[in-house]
Specification:
By secondary structure, this protein is of the alpha+beta class. It has one helix and nine strands.
Length: 108
């Protein structure tokens, strides 16, 4: 009897959070807006320079390494080859300006 009551309570409680969800998105021309800036308190260290390996194939773009905020400090993300998300896209490097960090993004 207790097992049945426990099962009934669990099923009733779980259905309370099982609402129907519907999402709809529209994309026009593959444009991705620039991400919002993140407030940081110290400028990043000097960039790390290293070897750029050859491209893995036609159509790849080199995304250079950069520092990004990771909690209270900066972390290094190494450079890599990537395919642009749409035709004639260019990589806008991340930047630190006016005490804020603006992450990198692709744009035309």
């Amino acid at each position: 009897m207790k097992l049945r009551l426990l099962a009934l309570v669990l099923m009733a409680g779980s259905s309370m959070f099982g609402a129907t969800r519907f999402f709809f998105g529209v994309g026009v021309g593959g444009y991705y807006p620039a991400p919002a800036p993140v407030a940081v308190y110290a400028p990043p260290p000097a960039p790390v320079y290293g070897y750029v390996p050859p491209a893995p194939g036609y159509g790849y773009s080199w995304v250079p390494g950069s520092w990004y905020p990771s909690g209270p400090r900066w972390a290094w993300r190494g450079g890599y080859w990537a395919r642009p998300p749409y035709a004639r896209a260019g990589w806008v490097a991340p930047r630190y300006y006016g005490g804020r960090f603006y992450s990198g993004y692709w744009r035309r």
